[in-house]
Every structure is written in structure tokens, then in C-alpha cells.
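#struct-pred

JT: dropping the chains for the assembly here, can someone run the whole complex?
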Amino acid sequence: MSSASGSGGRKVLNKNQKFKRDKLRNARNIRTQAVSYDKNNHDLSKEGGSLLNVNNFVNTRAFEIKQLYSSMHQSRRSNATRVFQSLPRKLRRRTASHNIARIPKRMRNRAKREMNKNNNNNEKVNNISGGLTIAAKKRSKKSLNAKQFYRAKMSIKLLRLFTKTKNLKMLSGPKELTLRNITTRQKIKHFKDILKNKLPSSSTAIACNNQMGSYDNTAVDSLATKTYSRIKYLKRQKHFKWLSTHIWHAKRSHLIKRWGYQIPYSPTQKCYKLTHRIGSSVASSDGNLLQDTSFIGNMIIQNESSTDELSDLIASLTNKKGNKKVYRVHQCYFEGLLYNIDNENSISNAILGPADLLWINENKVLLRLHPSFYEVVFKAILKKVKLNKNFKVYDCRYSIGSINLCGAKTLSSLSSILRTVKNEGKESSSYQTFTKLSKLTDYSILPKQTLFAFRALDPRFVITPKAVTPNNGEINIADICKLNEINKDEVKAILEMLSDPETRKESYKNQATLKQLHKRKEAQSSGEASTNQNIIMFKRDYDPLIPVVIAKRPKTGDWVLLLPWNWVLPFWYQLHKVSKSYHIGLRQNQLLHFESQSLYFPDDYPFTKIGFKENYFYKRDAAMKKWESKPSSHRLNYDKIKEIHDLDLPAIQGEVGDYFSCDWLFLQILINSITYLSKDGNDLISINSSKTMSMNEHCGLRELRSVNDIMEFYNDIKVKPIEEDTPILSLHNIKNKSKNKLNPILFDKLSPQLSIIKTPLPVTPISCILNEKGHPTDNARIYQIPSEHLEHWKSVAKGVYRSNGRRNHELNHPKPNVKDLIGFVTSGTFSLSQGKGVGNGFVHSNYIYNSTHDYVLIRNVGTNVYRVSQWKLINI
Amino acid sequence: MVRLKSRYILFEILYPNMDESEHFEDNFSMKNILLRHNKVTPEEITNRVIIQDIRRSLQLNFGDYGSGKASSLLQLKYFSNMTSTGILRCHREDIDLILSALMLIKKLDNRIPIIFNPVKISGTMKKIEQFAIRRSHKLMTLMQKDTSVSMNIFKDVTVDDNND
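RK: done, full complex below.
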């Protein structure tokens, strides 16, 4: 208080502040050229200004320009910014402020200077383990006690021995290492024995043909044990297996533990618009999106003797679709629904979920399944073919990996990392067509069946990935048409290789470590000057060749790269060296599905067991917990929402159905009961005020007479746990509206209530685009438009305009009743590709058959606002 | 918090041809016109002198109120005697006052007849600097061109593209 008094109102600056102020002032000062005063020639200082000659004029201007530039530059630099602040977001790191190893090399000197300047004298910058960091605050120097010391020593010893065995190209099986009852000493002894005998000691030991420790982990007719590439991370993968790119992803993505894997969920970097721009449409796409999809389980089913048996099996799995000639003989990539074939444990012919299928030849098929039902299918198939000795089922979950790619630069980026060598003087024809087409950006012109397969070199041989320039001319339509005919034999041969455990193992032979690669690169650069410095020369008979398959998925339009499991990581690293390659996770995958108005498994598959659980348990629980964690004043009170429907029924308070999920049980009971009540042409009564409640004698359930009774009936049922074996929904795919009709429900004479609960509701997927403003959210309710309101809503959809030409959004809309509820939105939000609110969901199939127009009403949960939208069928 | 909003004025000092002894009638080229008007400002005309002149003009033309209002944030950020160009800073609200005051200045230091030509007004120093750079470049190229342009062609006379 006293310090400010003597300064006459002006703030007193301390030394540091003065320095800062002066620094800023100096930086902002623009230097001026002094007037050159020539004693002999007083011309310049003459009164009234003096004339310059041309040369002087130009010189003075040049000087001024220079000074102005430097002033602009200096005043920008004098700001209190640090180097890492100028980095693009992709290169920013949380620790960059105190760890210069996190800053690009060209900026490290400046960073070092700034760090020293910022730190006070007591905190000097230290050089810790190669990187520069601020010394941690005095760490308590606690030495290890005897027990800890012994343990540390032993674990080091163990790791050292393990590396030694790995270097000797023999890897002890993970079984010995994971057993809990084996002590560290026994483990050490085990390794020493291996080293002494130089032979694998037990049957589970795996002989390794490379220093990386890669081996093929395929199980025949049984589920494979998990692969462990590094002993260090063994324990952490006990319940949830890591993908081979896990460590890469752990730094860059949020991961979730689902379905026995740790799967990248979403990149830590914001990427909503980027995903839309690159992934969803071709016109705006200038890069590619990568997703490690190795968690999708691969299974190979083989039947050497009979093609029909295998074809029948696939027919039963895919409802007679996957065994069609296009897929079986012409090797089209199949995407479709997978059906349950296990009759005992659950309902047969229930849909499990989407799956991919690729016929290797007529005796062998590759199945690609979602991990949530992989084991179910695997066991069911085993059970079915148990008695048939001709069948062999390979579990290739940990032996074939895959990367999903989408975006306009997919082929171009793949071509920049993939190289082949001439085999017996002949170049691979599939690779040639691949490089030829790699310049393409619109993949919709390619035929549905587009498969490339060849033996590629280790992608790390190309040091800086560069797109190859095809030397075989321009792309023409004739090439594209006969694309698959010319490469047919080669593709078949490579597919065969990829599916064979021995060849996969062969592809790991002498798989180079980074150290080895670096050594080779060094040797090459010091040798002949004429060799291409960007490529490590291929050594025939030493370096491995990797069978890779690139397939275009016809429905989703993205690409799948199939390759041996242990090659995924090198490919992944190299693909990220190509510019404008971005990684995505499950969430982005969902977004891409949503934007193309298709369904995403499992969220948009409520008619499957897994999708139903996802909606009813996982997502519901998460949403409910989030809601409950809020104080009651800050959360929406769903019970007290007024005027949702035209007529308020006494049985409903506020929102109908469950608030946090798509309440299919509610819809099932509602629609089945309405069908029951109006089956003989009876009128539907909303409330029956005269009658009191009565029970059915046979089943002990409420008698149904009015809509209100249905609501009460639902309230009775919902408290009971859901029986998982009786599905609530069944998918009813409508291709042609006039062709097939729904079977009418046969109601039990004595207790129709049981029929109502037991009969699954046929539903059909639709995609709704909102005509007005607003957008649907997940779990939004879909209503049909009552016939008396149709005129009004049609005019709203067309647009009601004010006299000033603006659209009128403040109309009074008539409201439907609860009996008009026909479905739910499973995923809905504002769609960037449509520029409007879009909701994908399911409605009762009967509505589709009976509808004469394509308008429905959508209401978000917890609101009483209805939005008119236009629907179209989604084909799955 | 309310930010102090200011405006920057890029101006140049032109020297109208008072001296009849110099004859250019026979050569009306762009180059000569530029050379005639863009002279070196004498050494004794410093930043302080210019600011004083502007203040005086404000006082004279707009009275105590005008001068008090406008000169609160009046600063000369830059002035180069060699090119006779400068940058003024003032309050956003007082920009009209300052411009009129500049216009009404006829003589610097009560003896040198000049014209204040405000070339560009901007909200940031950076944009003013960028404009000055562009303008100087343009003048330089004009000067280095040795083609003599006839005075009659008016479009060649304007050197300021101050329409952005």
C-alpha cells in the first residue's frame, strides 16, 4: 500500500517488469534511416525538403521495407511464446514444456534456451537419460530392501535369459511363463536348460525363425491361446488381449476394453470433421483413414474332400447367401448377416451379427467375425463338423491381422509402402494392376469384386514411402473390366499362401529388427553411391516375402488389408509415414456408418443378442449413471414432462418407456396389444372409465381392454427381468413392399397376454432425414402421423412461410397419441453429409407395409416437440 | 474488460511544388512527379515537431474539447525523414478529428509548406506495416521503370490502391 503512494498514481514497476516493458518497446520500435547530411552538398537538408535522385529514392524505400519487415517479425517474436506453442496440434505434447525430447529436433536449441531462461537458479536443466528435463524435486533416496533388491535382480536375470533364448531363435511357449505356481528360480532354471540343450524343452515350446520373436499362432479345431510377443507385458493382457499396435495406440488413442481385446476407441486428437471430410465422401477426401481391425477374428474352414459339405455349412451360416457362385467361384468379398447354427443352446437361425466372408478356393473359406460372437460361432461350427473328419477349422485370430483403410488416397498410400520383387523373371501381374490403379481416387468405378494379392517386401525396406509411378501406361476402362480375370490365378495362389500356417511362418523368416535394418542401411549408404538410398536392397533367399491381400469391401466401400499377424505393426508404422494418413477408432467407424446411413454393429443391431445387450445394459447403464450423478436440480425430470401426447393417460407419467434406452419391450407390448385389441375390427378405446382392473385367471396377468390397460400391463411386466432366450425383436427385411406380408399373430384364446409378450416384434431399419430444424438424438421416439394430421404435417414438411419470406417455425402442431408410437432411433444426430438432422432406427414392419407416404414424426427423449421427417429403407 | 480500440494511420508528407525555379514541364513522367513530391524531410523535423504541429492544428480548429479528446492517445509510432512516411496512432472514435486536423496543416514548423496525405487507415499495426511494404514495393517498381508516362493518362497517376 505504501509503495504506490509515492509514485503519483503511476504504477511502480519492479526490475523484471521494467525489463519486460523495455524489451517490448524495443521490439516494437521501427528503425529509421538517418538523413545523410553531406557537408559539401547541402541539398538534402535544404529548407522545404530536398529532392532525391532515383537511386536514392529506391534505396530509401528498400531500407524502409526491410525495417518494416523486421519490425513485424520482432514484435511477433517478443511475445511470451515458447517454441512448442508454435507447433501444429498434431505435434504438441503435454510434456513438451519441460522435456525437450518431445520437441522436434530443429527446435530443440531454442527450447533449451527458453527452458533455462524460465527456470530459476535452483532448478537447472539436467540431462537425464538422453533427454533434457527439469530435475525432479528432491526425490527421497530410498534404497531397495533386501527382498525388493533380490526380486529386481531376478527379474533382470529372467529378462536377460529370455532375450538370449529369443536370439537363439527359440521361444519357450507362453504356458511355462504364465503358470503361477512356478517360482522365478524355476523359470530361470527352465531357460538355462533350454540354453544348455539348445533345444526346445517341452512340446509347447515354439521354434522361432527370427529375432523379432514372431511366430504363427494358429490352432486347429480348438480355440487358440493368446499370443505374447513380449514377456514384459504378459500379465496385463490376461483378460484383454492387446493388438499388435497397442503401444502405438496407447499414446494416441483412448482405448476401451471390450470383447476380450483392448480396442482403440477414438483418437485423442479431435477428428470429427476430419473423419467426415476424408472418410465419407470422395470429392472432399484428400487422405486416408486407417484402423487396425486385427480384433476382428479370422477363421478358416477347410474341407479337402467335398466342396458341397462346406458350401452347405456356409449356406446355413449365412442363410443361403454366402455360398452363391459369385462368392464361391468368382471370389467376391461377401458382407452379410451371420445366423446361429447351434440348435441346442439358443434359438436357431437367430441373427448373430454382420460378418465378412472370402472364399480362398472351393474347399476353403475365410470367415471374418466380430469378436463378440467369434467364440460362439467357432464352437457351433466345431460341434457341427465334429463327426466329419474331412473338416478342419483353423482359429486364425492371432495369426491373420488386418488393417481397414478408407478415403481417396487409400490405394496411393498403400502403393507407396508396398514393393515386390520379380519372381522367376516375372513381375506380379496383380501388383502391376494395383500400381496402375493406385492413382485412382474414386473407387466406385471399380468393379464390386476388386482383389489384389501379391507377395510384398518388408515395408520398412522403403525408408521414405513414395508412391510408385506405374510404367505401364494409362488406366482404361477395359483394364478395369477384366481386372479380376487377368490376375485370377495369382490371387488364388496368394490367398492360399495367406491361409496356410506354414507359409505364414515362412513369411516371418529372418524378419528384421530395427537394428538390423539400420545396419543394412548404413552399410548400403557407405558402399556404392549409385544405389537407391531410399530402398534397402532385397537379399534373395534371405529376406522374407509377405503374402498380402487387399480387398475392396463392396457394401461399405472401404478397403481391407489382410496380412500375417506379426507384420501388422511394420505395415502400420510405414502407413503412418505417408502424409495425410490418420488413424481412427471404433467411434469414427460408427460415425462413417451413420453418415452413409447404414447400420453399425452392435449399436444399430437391436434384433441381435449382442446389439440388444448393448442397448439395454451397457449404454443404458452408462446414460443412467450419468443422469443419476447430477444433482436433482440439474437433471431432467422425465416423470414430469407435460403435454407429450394429445391425450394424457392416467397410467403414464411423463416420458413413455425407458428414459435411457430404446425400450423395445414397451414397443412390443404396445403394438402386439393394439393388434390384439383391434383384431376383430373393434375400435381402440383409450381409457375405459367404467370398468375396474381385473386379472386373467389363466396366467395371472392383467386383462386388456384399453390403451391405458396396455400401459398398466407394461408397468407390470417391466419390473420382471428380461428373459434372454425369448427375443423381443425380429428383423424383417423389406425389399419389395408388395411382395411379402407379415404373418398375423395367433393369439392364445385363454391368455392372450402371454402371446403378446412371447411374440417377437418384426422391425425394419429406416433412416430418417429431418425436414425442418432440429436433430434427433439416440433413443428418440418415432411416431406415425395420425391420418387426420397428415395434411398439416405435409405442409410443414414443404415449409410454411411468413409474409417476409422466412420459414415459420412457431406453428402449433397437433400431437399424436401414445398408440401412434412405431419405433425408436438407435443412432441420431446432425449429419454433416446431409446437412440436416438424421436418425437411423427401427420401426414396426407393418407400418412400412401400410404406409402411403414417407413421413414420420420424431420426438427426442424428454421433450414434447415433434419434428417431421422423411424416411427411407435401409438395406441390410 | 473493455479493450482500448485504436486506429493507425499511414501518412506521407508531400511537398507541393512551390519552387518555380525547377522546371519539369517538358517531362511529365510518373517518375518525375513522384520525385518532385516525395522529398526528404529536413533533419530538424523530428517526431516531436510533427506531433506538436498536429496538436496545434487540433487546438486551432477544434478547440480545447477537440484537442483534449483527440490528443489523449495520439502517438507517432514511426516517422522516416528519408521517405517522409509515418504511422500515427489515435483513438478509434477520434479518427475523423485527426484526419481533418492533418488536412488543415499547411506548414510544418510554421515554415515548410507541405501536404499531409493519409494513405491508409487500419486497426492493427501489422496490417499498416504490410500495406506500407506493398506500397513501397509499388513505388520502387514505378521508379525503376524508365518509360515516361504521359500526364494525360489518369489511371497511371494513382499509385494508392487504398480500396481494400
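JT: nice. Chain A touches chain B at residues 28, 30, 32-35, 37, 44-54, 57-58, 60-65, 68-69, 71-72, 75 (CB under 8 Å). Confidence is low (pLDDT under 50) at residues 1-7, 39-49, 200-204 of chain A.
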